[in-house]
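Q: A small favour: would you put together sequence and structure tokens for a protein?
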Amino acid sequence: MIKDVFIEVSKNKRRPFWFGLILIMIVEVFWFYASMIRTQSLSNRTFMLDQNYLLLMLMTVNGFFAPLFISILASRIVAIDFDNDMPSVLRVNNQNHRQLYTAKLCFGSLIVLMYWLIQVMSVKYVSQNMHIVFTGHLFVITMVCLLTGLVGTLAFQMSVSFIVERQVVGILLGLAGSFIAMMTSGMLPQAMMRFIPILYVSLLNPLVLQAKTIVVNPSILINLFIVFFVGLVVVLFTEWYTNKTLEV
């Protein structure tokens, strides 16, 4: 498996789509930072500028950008094989369809992990710059929720990109997810978002705004279970589908 992941690294390391992903990350970090600076400058704000607001904004802004980031990532690392005669690629690399899918999922997960680490560093930097102190376990809970949402979204997008040969479909799903999250500020009814995997980062926000007060989401454990379960089902289904494709 490690060899297969290194093959994916070598196939994708010089491709131009990385510049687009880096640009999305830069815009996302600056958007988050600018939002916090703007809020800090308001003299008539009706809420405290504390860890609750900081973490709420982190998850909200990630809900805007993560769907697009992950959809581009998944579609581009899959497209290289669809565009270059997949059966020939598999023979050259001594792989089957299932190995290829698993390798791409692991490779994508490594990139998502790096994206997540950048989010951790950015929120730490903003908290220190604004003298916001983290207390209790809320910071750790939020970071776990963010990582779970990112991986769950990746599992869905990778499966879409691997099953549907037209890679534009996956990118359009990501665009739609980012657009919906931005237009609704990630505040669609949770019962609805549970059926939309592309919005799982927004769904796993552990904080919600109620009557101008930021409180812990009482449904966060249920949402975590749903995202984990759906992600597992999606991965298992795609593993079965790739085995079936191989048999055919």
